[in-house]
Design brief:
alpha/beta, five-stranded mixed beta sheet, globular, binds coenzyme A
Length: about 375
């Protein structure tokens, strides 16, 4: 039988930080409120596109796996913030990597995009259609932050994470998954002015996120709990058999509620929402790579993952780790730094939403802002 073992992994966290204190200079909020309600202390904001971040995470994951880009059969990019509708962003990533023979597609199920993507790519490997795939989650979600909505603008951050999966006969990789979508819940979380419907066609490049936090919170806990119960049952295991739980990082209280329902001690749970906030499709690969860097992943471990996002999509999966937890190689590739501050980066967005941030900008940025 074919399996799809994870043989490479990597992440890219953009260097510019927007801390809660920074945010409190933009909207009426505080570090105390944000941290106590969500667990977030800061988020990374990117000065480069979703595709550029995806490329770097992919380049590093391939080096980690010791796989040449030319040997990759598929590049799949999970993202809500694709660069264009057409062509897809995965083709940009494939070209930049030099993955000459690879098929390339984007997959958008919002925050669950990476879980959906690794499920599809794993099934393609199990079916024997492909041998090696690069599965990336990348988001530049700072572009859709609406600074007039203090209830949602603090929740999200940018970043990318990637894994390489390869065909093997060893029982490893994503062993089983369950994916679903809550009926009639599309309005809870959406970017309404983004799309090709006639009412969306506009020159306005600033996008706004519509958000019903409490409703999403309840559905997230229920959806992920149900999905977890299904994957545990299918694998014939209980929560006690889980060595590590890598949940989507949307809110520390959602993560704690899930862990409580599972009776899973928080020591087994990977939490990085304090550092990254919710990076949507990048959230699980970022958390997984962080756990590997922190030596929390051991050979043969059983890892549970679960995710939730707009749609409202949700799912869970059981991953069996292989025998290697160290990288075979390291990529020297880098993204050139941004010459400015996080306030400079967001200056146009602040101006669009009427936020008075002029005093926070450096002189260079001030002269560029209309
Ligand atoms: C967004 C979220 C953190 C809000 O937490 P909450 O406990 O539900 O807070 P509420 O929305 O009830 O707001 C409580 C109060 O804080 C205020 N408030 C909202 N945002 C605030 C902010 N940034 N700073 C300070 N106060 C704020 C509200 O106005 C409200 O005030 P009121 O009681 O006087 O009316 C929480 O609902 C959540 O995490 N939801 C799910 C996350 C999610 O959807 N992620 C994306 C999908 S994967």
């Amino acid at each position: 039988m074919n399996y799809a073992k994870i043989t490479g992994w990597s992440k890219y966290a953009p260097p510019l930080l927007m801390t809660n204190e920074d945010m409190a200079q933009i909207v009426d909020t505080s570090d105390e409120w944000i941290h106590s309600r969500s667990g977030i202390r800061q988020r990374h904001y990117s000065h480069v596109s979703t595709g550029e971040m995806a490329w770097l995470a992919g380049e590093r994951a391939l080096a980690c796996a010791g796989v040449a880009a030319s040997d990759v059969d598929l590049v799949v990019l999970g993202s809500t913030t694709a660069e264009e509708f057409c062509p897809n962003t995965a083709s940009l990533v494939k070209n930049k990597l030099g993955a000459t023979k690879a098929a390339a597609f984007d997959l958008n199920s919002a925050c669950t995009s990476w879980l959906y993507a690794i499920s599809v790519a794993t099934d393609m490997i199990k079916a024997g259609s492909i041998k090696k795939a690069l599965v990336i989650g990348s988001e530049r979600i700072s572009l859709v932050m609406d600074w007039s909505k203090r209830e949602s603008c603090f929740l999200f951050g940018d970043g990318a994470g990637a894994v390489v999966i390869e065909s093997t006969e060893q029982a490893a990789g994503l062993l089983y998954y369950y994916l679903s979508c809550v009926p009639d819940s599309r309005e809870c979380l959406r970017i309404p002015s983004y799309g090709l419907s006639p009412e969306h066609l506009t020159d306005d490049i600033f996008l706004s996120l519509d958000f019903e936090g409490r409703e999403i919170f309840k559905s997230a806990v229920k959806g992920m709990s149900d999905a977890i119960a299904i994957v545990l049952k299918q694998q014939g295991i209980s929560a006690d058999d889980i060595d590590l739980f890598v949940p989507h990082q949307a809110n520390i209280r959602i993560i704690q509620a899930l862990a409580n329902r599972l009776n899973c001690p928080m020591e087994k749970v990977v939490v990085c929402i304090d550092e990254y906030a919710n990076t949507s499709a990048a959230s699980i690969p970022l958390a997984l790579c962080g756990a590997l860097e922190d030596d929390r992943v051991k050979p043969g471990m059983i890892i549970l993952t679960a995710s939730f996002g707009a749609g409202l999509t949700f799912g869970a999966g059981i991953i069996k780790w292989g025998d290697r937890v160290t990288a075979l190689g390291v990529s020297e590739a880098e993204i050139p730094p941004y010459q400015g501050t996080v306030f400079d980066l967001m200056a146009d967005s602040f101006a669009y939403y009427g936020v008075d941030a002029e005093h926070l900008l450096t002189d260079g940025a001030k002269s560029e802002t209309p």
